[in-house]
TrEMBL record:
It comes from Amycolatopsis tucumanensis. This is RNA methyltransferase. The keyword Transferase applies. Pfam families: SpoU_methylase (PF00588), SpoU_sub_bind (PF08032). The keyword NAD does not apply. One of its GO terms (molecular function) is methyltransferase activity. It comes from the Bacteria. Residues 16-93 form the RNA 2-O ribose methyltransferase substrate binding domain. GO terms for biological process: methylation. InterPro entries: Alpha/beta_knot_MTases, Ribosomal_eL30-like_sf, rRNA_MeTrfase_TrmH, SpoU_MeTrfase, SpoU_subst-bd, tRNA_m1G_MTases_N.
Amino acid sequence: MLVAETTVSPKDRFLTVYGRKPVLEALDDPELRVDKVILADTARGPAAAEIQRAAKAAGVPVQRASAHRVKVLAGNGKQDQGVLADVVAPRMRPLSAALADAPARVLLLDGITTPANVGMILRTATAAGLGGIVVPRRGVAALDPLVVKASAGVAFRAPVLRCATAAEAASMLVGAGYGLYALGAQGVSSLFEAPLPERAAFVLGGETAGVSDEVASLVTGWLSIPMPGEVESLNVSAAAAVLCFELVRRGTTR
């Protein structure tokens, strides 16, 4: 049986942006709260000075670290440009904490590795008012500037729920009494007609492999999106949009 993590990771509290322009944009946005800026000790010149001025104006502390440390923290050795910022994501929290509030409808991302898809799903689900989007720390695209850009900035305020893996999340959700439904072409029930329990979680599988075997073994039922046209499947972010707004139509997003 999988056991939920109890230690709150910094990745469950902040979204890390890296690169000079994204960091400056975060510092200049009055709606965002930046916890800290980390600047490589090799960063010098006008660009570094501009970041330091912006951080001072925003009341944000600047820490110096080795260039290697910045690359490790950013998780991107080619585009960090020697600077990163930890931006507070006020609605992001561990899945274990969210389950105490029992949101009625949540999404679970399982193996979605394209940042654009993750970003668009975050934007769509937030727009639809879903109670949470489970984004595991492993097996899914990192919540980085590419995801933030694809979400048009909504990622900062999306109700992101964090855990280690999709399999851990599925086990926790089932254990908390959620029906676990996966979207797939093999679904025997139409998304538009299937009865749903009071609390339900919906699994969106990866772009290539779909829903993982570990998660599939816990699924309550499979749902399909009727497609009378000659198209085999939808992009996962498009499928997520159909799902989210079907829940809006039913009046059961939260």
